[in-house]
Amino acid sequence: MTTTLIQNPTSRVLLKNISWQTYEFLVQDLAEQPGIRLTYDRGTLEIMTPLDPHEKYKKILGRFVETLSEELDTDIYSLGSRTCKREDLDRGLEPDQCYYIQNEDLVWDKEQIDLNQDPPPDLVIEIDIASSSINRLALYASLGVPEVWRYDGTRLIIYHLEGKEYAECNNSPTFPFLPQTEIERFLELRKTTKEKALLRLFREWIRSQIQQNE
Fold first, then answer.
1. What distances in angstroms separate CA 126 from CA 14, 54, 96, 156, one per listed residue?
2. pLDDT digits (tens, 9 = 90+) for 78-97
3. CA 143 → CA 5, 8, 50, 93, 107, distances in Å?
4. What's the pLDDT at 94?
5. What is the 8-class DSSP label of residue 42?
6. Is the pTM of this model over 0.85?
7. How far apart, in whole angstroms, are the C-alpha atoms of residue 206 and residue 50?
């Protein structure tokens, strides 16, 4: 087993030649310790502890999605950073936020989702301020996640799965009236606007779009 410790900008440990059984043990062992993120890709395991900017933006983007669902009267199943893994792919990771929307009806009443039998989340939020050493987009693609929002602290990119690879989109496939530029505008506003006021503005914007499309 080879270990590489990277101290900056987040605490990160990279381990090589890790078995699937060891990864699953760590997932279970660290389940009650929030703030630790595991990414596993065919024997390589990365353990990260995100800092405050990461947590701030994952939370606000998650609240955007939840506000959208409320205003559109759409059922969603919010699973936060639940572990998404499949032994047959030898891959697993925790999204920053994940949601079942189109497939919500298939999983809403399940205590434990099994991605070997159940569909993956419909929408994943990925904060990439401190880049992972592992290509997490490739893992989401292998799991079949249809849509990923990825924010690096400056730019938000919306990805849609086409075949086995992601393509960039100008608008969210899940919320077609929502352009990437509008999400970015509200993320920029977060730097100068308190959260409660920001969410009120976002809610008002959604309502204006709904009225325009009626």
1. 19, 9, 5, 10
2. 999 999 999 999 999 999 99
3. 28, 29, 23, 10, 16
4. 94
5. T
6. yes
7. 30
The DSSP call for residue 15 is: E
Reported as a single tens digit per residue, the pLDDT across 135-183 is 999 999 999 999 999 999 889 999 999 999 999 999 999 999 999 999 9
- Side-chain-side CA neighbours of 31 within 13 Å: the count stands at 8
Q: Retrieve residue 61's tokens.
A: 């983007």
Range in 90-99, 105-114, 127-136 the model is least confident about: 127-136
Euclidean distance between CA atoms 214 and 210, whole angstroms: 6
Residue carrying the six token digits 């399940």: 110
pLDDT at 10: 52
> What domains can you pick out in the chain, each with its CATH number?
51-212 (3.90.1570)
H-run or E-run covering 138: helix 136-143
Type of residue numbered 129: I
Give residue for tokens 């309502």. 207
Beta-bridge partners for 167: 160
Q: Which residue has the tokens 């499949």?
A: 86
Residues 115 and 143: beta-carbon distance below 8 Å? yes
Our CA dihedral for 99, 120, 53, 23, rounded to 10 degrees, sits at 140
Put residue 159 in one of left, alpha, beta given phi > 0 → left and psi -120 to 50 → alpha: beta
